Amino acid sequence: MVKKTILVICTLFLLNIVSPRLGAKALTFGELPAKQTSKQWSVQIGQAEKGKGLAESKNGEYHTYSLEVDNIGKDVISAEIHMYRNEPNSTTKFALFGCPPDHPCSKLDTDEQAITLAKQLNDGYPYRFSNFLLAEKATELEVEIVWTKKGSEGRPLKETFTFTAE
Asked: What's the pTM value of the predicted model, to 2 decimals?
């Protein structure tokens, strides 16, 4: 009886020590801007722009941030940028922006958009997304860049920058 009581007390004690460390962490940036770079790209998460018509953070639901992607490598022929967040307890990633089927943006030629973005990046003008929402429950943000360059025989290249909860 005494051994069982000591075992229960020790188990409860260990659970109290371990369980706070097992809690879910939300993706928050302790210091902005948060930046990652590679030989080809610079990706920076910063403070969201504020102003009329722009989203504002909503406590308990989401935060707002900005994104800046800069081409610091060789010239590219085409480029696409996608952003995803994770969903707790799921392997599925959710896109942070897209185009609804009946919206005018769905009628635009995606190849033409990718070529235009590449020209902008090659000319030294970064891609800026001034205000996007990120759910508080997210613990990971992925910025995926898919591009083509001369000499790659038209085969796309892909690089993923992952920002995670600390």
From this structure: 0.78
